[in-house]
Amino acid sequence: MRLVVIGAVAAGLSGAYSAMKNIENLEVIVLEKGTDVSYGACGMPYLIGGAIDEEAKLIAKDAEEILADGIDLRLRHEAVGVDFSLREVYTRSLDTGEDAVVPYDFLLIGTGANAVRIPGTEGIEGVFTLNTLEDSRRIKSFINEKKVKKAVIVGGGYKGVEMLEALHDLGIKAEIIEMEESILNTFDPDVSAITEKYLRDEGFGIHLGEKLDHLETDSYDNTGERVSKVVTDKSEYEAELVILALGVRPATGFLEGTNLTMTKGAIVTDLEGRTNVPGVYAAGDCAMIFDFVAGVDRYLPLGTNSNKMGKLSGLSMAGKKVSFKGVQSSGYVKILGMEQSQTGMTDTAAKKMGLDFGSVLVRTRDKSSYYPDSRNLYVKLTYLNKDGRLIGAQMAGETGTAIRIQGLVPAIYANLTVYDLEYMDFGYAPPFNSVWDSINVAASKAARNLPEQGRNC
Question: What is the number of other CB atoms lying within 10 angstroms of the CB of residue 322?
Answer without folding.
Answer: 10
